[in-house]
Amino acid sequence: MKIQVATAPVSWGVLLKDTPNVPPWSQVLDEIKAAGYTGTELGPYGYLPQDQALLQDELDRRGLVLISAYVQFNLVDLQARPDVYEEGMATIRFLGAMGCEWLVLSDLLLVDALRSQRAGRIRPEDGLQGEAWERFIRNTNDIARQAYNEFGLKTVFHPHVGAYIESEAEVDRFREDTDATLVGLCLDTAHLMYGGSDPVEVARRWGDRVRYLHIKECDRATLEQVRANEWDYFKAVEVGVFPELGQGSVDFAGLLGVLDENGFDGWAVVEQDILPESGIDALASAKRNREYLRHLGL
User: Fold this and answer.
1) What residue ranges in 201-264 does DSSP mark as E strands?
2) Predicted TM-score of the model (pTM)
3) Short-list 215, 150, 161, 207, CA closest to 180
4) Which of these, 162, 160, 134, 5, lies nearest to 71 by C-alpha position?
5) What is the pLDDT of residues 210-231, one digit of tens each?
């Protein structure tokens, strides 16, 4: 097993492209390097410089690698939000131009009011059925095929709370119905746990289709409180459902054991959801998370 450790602008509070009061991108890149990471994701499109030569120079000066971006599409109906589609394709083109290897693909968050309301408590009847599911799978395969054929990007899909692939049953159904040669899994430890899965068991079932990692903590006791109060995703973040690594309930040692058995060789991206005005020192948090992984041998 060989794992390289990266992080992303989200760990500095850069949640969306219009999130206010976030630090400048140059500071974030400086602190990613200072915290001991060797790579970064792009973050929201437009946060890091979109000038290819400039961004490459800034990364090279810090010894960092741009590895991917989290990209959303409305996978039930690609043209329902033309702005989302165009931004997604622009991101894919930029990743290809930058020589990246990976595309982290997800369906558009919070597009369905019921799914948003029941995040973390999804029932079978809340899921996609029939033609809607078939379109979802077809669009996923098609984007992955285009990303590889035209831009050299390998696609991994990211199940996400508040989207259409969240529950354990949905994650496994998605595995069965998508093209294994085109679509791998971005195993996000926290979102799988939030959706009701055991990340270790998901890694075991998906085997070599686990091709990329998002390393993120989830606290089971806080999650049960969120479920009991029927709080939404944003309230869950506010009350600390995603603490720093080692402060929650994810069995990271067990996960690494399964990944070792599977011969995993790739990137692990540490994510620490920080609200910009929370008062948390992002650099100190990033350093603690990196040190925790060093204790696990990464």
Assistant:
1) 210-215
2) 0.97
3) 207
4) 160
5) 999 999 999 999 999 999 999 9
